[in-house]
Write a structure and sequence with these properties.
The two termini are about 35 Å apart. By secondary structure, the chain is mainly alpha-helical. Bound molecules: arginine.
C-alpha cells in the first residue's frame, strides 16, 4: 500500500490490520461515497471561485471526480487502511491526478465537516424515500377505505368487542396516523437540510470560503450558523431515527392487527399468498411471515434509536470519533423503515377482507349495548348512569328480553320502562349495527356519510403532501444540475 497521505507527517509505524479494520468505517461509508464525491465537487468549485486553487488543478480534480461519479469509485478507495471514504477518495485522487493537484482539494476543510455534510445529504434522501413509501401506504389505505364505507365490523377496546364501526373508519384511523408520520418527517427534513460544510475541524478557517455557495450547490437551504455545532451535532440523526421509530411502531401495530385478523380465531382477512409462507411439515399452513418480519424490524429501529441516544449523551464538544460508530445505526434504521413501507402498502392493496365474517362478528359480545342505553336516555329522559346500569344488568343476565330489561329498570332505577312505552322491537332495533353506525352524529365518527367526506379530506391532504415531496426532490435535482453546469463551464 502507498504511504498514508494523512498519517505520513505525524505518526510513526503502521497499525496492525486488525486495528485498521477496527477503526475503519468503510462498510458504512458505502452509503455516503457518492455524497462525498458531490461534496468534493462543490468544495473544489468554490475554491476556484474564491481564487484559492488555480483552474488547472481544479479541472484535473473535477475530471477525476466526475469519472468516479460516472464509473464508480475504484475499490481501492474503500481500503480500510485509509480509515474512511473521505481519506480513501483523497488518496485515490492523488494517485490519479498527482499529489500536486490532488493534494489541494482538502484546503480549508476537515473530515469532520465533510462527514457531517455527507450524513445530512444521505439522510435527506432516505427521508424522501420514506415519505414516498408513506404516500403509497396512505394511498392504499384511502383506496380500500373508499370501498368499505358501509362495511360493518366490530370495533374493539381491550381487544374485546366494543361497538360496531366500519372497515373504512378503521383503515382511515391508520391513514391519519401515517399522515402524522409524514408530518414528522417533513419537520425533520427541514432541520436535516442545513449545511455544515465550511465548519472545517470545528473552528472554521482563515481561508475565505463561500459557505453559501457550497450549501447551494449541494441543495441545502442554508449553511449552519455555528461551526462547532456543524461538526459536533447529531440531533438530526436522532430526530430522523426517532421519527422512523415512531413510524415503525405504528407499522408494527397494523402488522400485529392483520396477523390477528388472518388467524382462524378472527378470520377478517385473507392475505395475498405472495406475502405468506407455508410450513415444511404442516401442509395446511399459510403463515403471515412478511408481517411478522416487519413487526420484528420495528424493534430494531427502536433499538437503533436507543443506541444513538446512548452513544451521543456523553460526548463533549466538538467532534469525537465515537460519532463514526453512530452511522451504521442510522443506516440500519433507514433501511428497515424504507424497505417496509412499500411492502405493507402492497399487503393492504391485495388483502381480501371477509366482509361477511366482519358483519357476523359486529353483533358479538353485545356491541349494541351502548346504543340501547343511549336509547333509554333519549326516549325516557333517565340519567345515562341509570341506563348504563339497567343495560349492564341485562347483559349480566344474558338477555335483552323486554321483561328482563324492565325488571332491571325497576330494581336499579325504581321505575317501569314498559309502563312508559318501551317495546321489545325498540330494544332490538337499537342493537342493529348498521343503524348504530348510521346514527352517529359526531365529527370523526364512523357514520358512512362523514367517513365518505373524511376519505376526500385524506385524499386532498395526501396530494398536498405528495406535491411537497416532489418540490423537495426537485430542489435537490435543480441544485445538482446547477453544480454540473458550473463544472462544465469550468
Ligand atoms: N469517518 C469519520 C466519521 O464518520 C470522520 C473522520 C473524522 N476523523 C477524525 N479523526 N477527526 O465520523
Amino acid at each position: 500500500m502507498a504511504k498514508d497521505q494523512i498519517r505520513n507527517g505525524r505518526l510513526e509505524g503502521n497499525r496492525s490490520e486488525d486495528c485498521e479494520i477496527y477503526l475503519a468505517s468503510m462498510d458504512a461509508d458505502r452509503e455516503i461515497a457518492e455524497c462525498d464525491i458531490r461534496v468534493d465537487m462543490a468544495h473544489v468549485l468554490m475554491l476556484v471561485q474564491q481564487n484559492l486553487i488555480d483552474k488547472d488543478a481544479a479541472k484535473k480534480i473535477l475530471v477525476a471526480l466526475k469519472g468516479y461519479m460516472e464509473n464508480g469509485l475504484p475499490e481501492n478507495a474503500f481500503d480500510p487502511a485509509r480509515e474512511d471514504i473521505h481519506a480513501g477518495i483523497e488518496a485515490q485522487l492523488m494517485e490519479d491526478v498527482g499529489a500536486d493537484a490532488g493534494g489541494r482539494m482538502h484546503l480549508g476543510r476537515s473530515r469532520n465537516d465533510e462527514v457531517a455534510t455527507c450524513l445530512r445529504m444521505r439522510t435527506r434522501q432516505y427521508i424522501l424515500d420514506a415519505l414516498s413509501g408513506i404516500f403509497e401506504l396512505r394511498r392504499a389505505l384511502i383506496t380500500r377505505a373508499e370501498e368499505h364505507t358501509t362495511t360493518i365490523m366490530p370495533g374493539f377496546t381491550h381487544l374485546q368487542h366494543a361497538q360496531p364501526t366500519t372497515l373504512a373508519h378503521y383503515l382511515l384511523a391508520y391513514e391519519n396516523l401515517f399522515a402524522r408520520d409524514a408530518g414528522r418527517l417533513f419537520d425533520a427534513y427541514s432541520r436535516v437540510n442545513r449545511s455544515p460544510l465550511g465548519s472545517a475541524a470545528f473552528a472554521g478557517t482563515g481561508f475565505p470560503l463561500d459557505r453559501e455557495l457550497t450549501a447551494s450547490y449541494l441543495g441545502f437551504t442554508s449553511p449552519m450558523e455555528n461551526s462547532m455545532d456543524g461538526v459536533a451535532s447529531r440531533d438530526f440523526i436522532v430526530e430522523t431515527i426517532s421519527a422512523f421509530a415512531i413510524l415503525m411502531t405504528n407499522i408494527s401495530r397494523i402488522c400485529e392487527e392483520l396477523i390477528l385478523w388472518s388467524s382462524a380465531f378472527v378470520k377478517f382477512v385473507n392475505l395475498n399468498d405472495a406475502f405468506c409462507s407455508t410450513s415444511s411439515i404442516m401442509p395446511q399452513k399459510k403463515n403471515p411471515d412478511t408481517l411478522e418480519i416487519m413487526r420484528a424490524k420495528s424493534a430494531a429501529v427502536t433499538g437503533e434509536l436507543m443506541t444513538s441516544l446512548m452513544l451521543i449523551k456523553s460526548l463533549p464538544m466538538s467532534y469525537n470519533r465515537d460519532l463514526q460508530d453512530l452511522n451504521p445505526h442510522l443506516w440500519r434504521a433507514c433501511h428497515e423503515t424504507v424497505s417496509s413501507l412499500p411492502l405493507l402498502a402492497e399487503i393492504i392493496e391485495t388483502a381480501e377482507f371477509d366482509t361477511a365474517a366482519m358483519k357476523k362478528s359486529a353483533k358479538a359480545g353485545n356491541t349494541g349495548a351502548t346504543e340501547v342505553a343511549d336509547y333509554l336516555v333519549r326516549e325516557f329522559n333517565i340519567p345515562f348512569r341509570a341506563a348504563h346500569n339497567i343495560v349492564g344488568r341485562a347483559v349480566k343476565l344474558g338477555s335483552f328480553d323486554l321483561a328482563v330489561v324492565d325488571d332491571a329498570a325497576k330494581e336499579l332505577a325504581g321505575l317501569s320502562l314498559v309502563e312508559r312505552g318501551l317495546t321489545q322491537e325498540a330494544i332490538d332495533r337499537a342493537q342493529n349495527p348498521k343503524e348504530i353506525v348510521r346514527s352517529k352524529k359526531t365529527l370523526g365518527s364512523p357514520n358512512p356519510r362523514l367517513v365518505k367526506k373524511a376519505v376526500q379530506v385524506a385524499d386532498v391532504k395526501l396530494v398536498q403532501d405528495e406535491v411537497t415531496g416532489d418540490i423537495l426532490r426537485d430542489q435537490l435535482e435543480d441544485a445538482d444540475n446547477r453544480m454540473k453546469h458550473a463544472i462544465e463551464e469550468l
